[in-house]
């Protein structure tokens, strides 16, 4: 595939400028660049979601132009999105076939095809498994199978490893090698430079919308890649110091939350017409299952407590219970000694809880609102947004400008919508906002997800600085290097329970990865390689450990 002179302008921003990339058949081609560099825009162009203002795309020497993703799919391009797009309540087969019925029907032929593809690339997909029963890595394989089923020969993978534990990353890379061996081509977008060096055959670096160079993964180091990306040396975050005190800030005792299974399905009976006043029923077969099972923990002033766990093991529910978004069935939550049980979300925020949510689109931002309104979001009653109970828009706007500056949010201004920021820049805005209110306790769910190495170091620094001032942090992260490196204390969550604890100074990501899948409980002993202490600092070769 050859891209030539691709340019795409948005109001106030040139997202892509004269991009030129040649992707060789049968290779993994990595695309790297800092937040807002223009990677997603380019991929959207390639997948027919956006039209370039200028430039050409050629596949196998033939020029193509896509108006819709359908056009791109027809030409053999498949996209595996970062957020999976599968229907949970359907089987793997149903998900794969859905929308592709014309290809191989919905019956025996479809099943045969799915198994053939699965075998050919070592995907190990079970057609009759229900998607809701699958783990993250399996879901990703279904997504890959889904695009292969539609005849993709070029696969675009957008940060595919962000949600995987180390063992799963290795398995994914094996799958990619199989794809290559069969002559397929993979475009791989990632901020994890170590992984890029491991899996890529070619690397293209994009900076400020344009291709600034290529790198040879056989000889390049992560430090060189990072410098190509940002155009200067990376700031190096300081090393860890212990600031843990013996003053409890957050105390959680016996927190239990049961699955209610309440779904918005009216009680339907054949004999009568459903009216809006009909009661809603418990639909889930798992009513009564413990989403949180007797969770107790204490986080002290100046302490970061990290929770490791595969997504879906109760982390979301724990956060929601702490924020007051769900009411637990049992248990007590105390912040700085005060019982939070009957305190609504807004009061919890005003009481000093900062919240970096795991899903920034659902809980962190109003996408269609401008940046300055997003600065106010969740902090309407607090300074500088509000003075004596009255909104102070001028002050809020000024403070938005400050956050944009201090957190290096790349934007043409504070009046653009949050939706127009790149993913990493949205994250920087949220982190900046939450840190601005000097929280006593911070819930940080994947605080650096989607941000580039430079911004990652900056966010780590901001959290560490606040910790030095006494901030207590609950850190949830799928990035095990980050989790191990930042945390003072580590706990493992599995099926709603805190099943194990580990010493971040000695545990390795691999050991933690195994414990997360339920393979260990109690106190985890660190292994030999852990001697060098893993923490998110820039190591010799600039990789984040
Ligand atoms: N729909 C849009 N409207 C206005 N500006 C946009 C739009 N989409 C992207 N941009 C801008 O284009 C630039 C490139 O964004 P893009 O999302 O392509 O970056 P990225 O390299 O994928 O970043 P990240 O690593 O943070 O995901 C950014 O400045 C962004 O704000």
From TrEMBL:
It comes from the Bacteria. InterPro entries: AAA+_ATPase, ABC_carbohydrate_import_ATPase, ABC_transporter-like_ATP-bd, ABC_transporter-like_CS, P-loop_NTPase. Residues 527-537 have a biased composition (Low complexity). It is a peripheral membrane protein. Residues 511-545 are annotated as: Disordered. CDD domains: ABC_Carb_Monos_I, ABC_Carb_Monos_II. Gene3D superfamilies: P-loop containing nucleotide triphosphate hydrolases. It is found in: Cell membrane. GO terms for molecular function: ATP binding; ATP hydrolysis activity. The keyword Secreted does not apply. GO terms for cellular component: plasma membrane. Keywords: ATP-binding, Cell membrane, Membrane, Nucleotide-binding, Repeat, Translocase, Transport. Residues 1-233, 274-520 form the ABC transporter domain. This is Sugar ABC transporter ATP-binding protein. It comes from Streptomyces termitum.
């Amino acid at each position: 595939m050859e891209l030539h002179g691709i340019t795409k302008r948005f109001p106030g921003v040139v997202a892509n400028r004269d991009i030129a990339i040649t992707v060789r058949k049968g290779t993994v081609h990595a695309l790297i660049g800092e937040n807002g560099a223009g990677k997603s825009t380019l991929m959207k162009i390639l997948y027919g979601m956006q039209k370039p203002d200028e430039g050409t795309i050629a596949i196998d020497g033939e020029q193509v132009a896509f108006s819709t993703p359908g056009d791109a799919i027809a030409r053999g391009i498949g996209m595996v999105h970062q957020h999976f797009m599968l229907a949970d309540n359907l089987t793997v087969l149903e998900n794969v076939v859905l929308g592709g019925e014309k290809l191989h029907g919905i019956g025996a032929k479809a099943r045969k095809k799915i198994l053939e593809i699965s075998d050919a690339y070592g995907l190990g997909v079970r057609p009759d498994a229900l998607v809701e029963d699958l783990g993250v890595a399996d879901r990703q394989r279904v997504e890959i199978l889904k695009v292969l089923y539609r005849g993709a020969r070029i696969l675009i993978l957008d940060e595919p490893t962000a949600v995987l534990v180390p063992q799963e990353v290795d398995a994914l890379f094996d799958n990619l090698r199989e794809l290559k061996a069969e002559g397929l081509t993979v475009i791989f977008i990632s901020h994890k430079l170590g992984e890029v060096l491991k899996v890529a055959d070619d690397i293209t670096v994009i900076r400020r919308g344009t291709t600034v160079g290529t790198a040879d993964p056989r000889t390049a180091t992560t430090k060189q890649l990072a410098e190509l990306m940002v155009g200067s040396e990376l700031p190096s975050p300081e090393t860890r110091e212990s600031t843990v005190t013996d003053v409890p800030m957050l105390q959680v005792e016996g927190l239990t939350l049961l699955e209610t299974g309440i779904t918005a399905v009216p009680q339907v009976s054949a004999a009568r017409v459903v009216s809006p006043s009909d009661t809603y029923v418990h639909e889930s077969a798992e009513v009564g299952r413990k989403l949180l099972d007797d969770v107790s923990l204490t986080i002290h002033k100046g302490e970061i407590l990290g929770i490791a766990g595969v997504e879906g093991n109760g982390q979301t529910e724990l956060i929601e219970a702490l924020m007051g978004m769900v009411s637990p069935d049992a248990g007590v939550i105390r912040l700085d000694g005060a019982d939070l049980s009957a305190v609504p979300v807004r009061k919890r925020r005003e009481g000093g809880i900062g919240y970096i949510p795991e899903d920034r689109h659902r809980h962190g931002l109003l996408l269609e609102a401008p940046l300055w309104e997003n600065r106010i979001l969740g902090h309407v009653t607090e300074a500088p947004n509000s003075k004596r109970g009255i909104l102070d828009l001028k002050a809020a706007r000024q403070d938005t400008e400050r956050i944009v500056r201090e957190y290096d949010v790349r934007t043409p201004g504070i009046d653009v919508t949050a939706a127009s920021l790149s993913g990493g820049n949205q994250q920087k805005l949220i982190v900046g906002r939450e840190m601005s209110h000097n929280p006593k306790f911070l819930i940080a769910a994947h605080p650096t997800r989607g941000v580039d190495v430079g911004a990652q170091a900056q966010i780590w620094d901001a959290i560490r600085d606040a910790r030095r001032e006494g901030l207590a942090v609950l850190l949830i992260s799928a990035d095990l290097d980050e989790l191990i490196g930042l945390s003072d204390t580590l706990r493992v969550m599995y099926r709603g329970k805190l099943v194990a604890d580990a010493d971040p100074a000695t545990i390795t990501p691999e050991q933690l990865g195994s414990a997360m899948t339920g393979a260990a409980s109690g106190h985890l002993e660190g292994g030999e390689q852990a001697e060098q202490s893993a923490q998110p600092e820039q190591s010799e070769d600039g990789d984040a450990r």
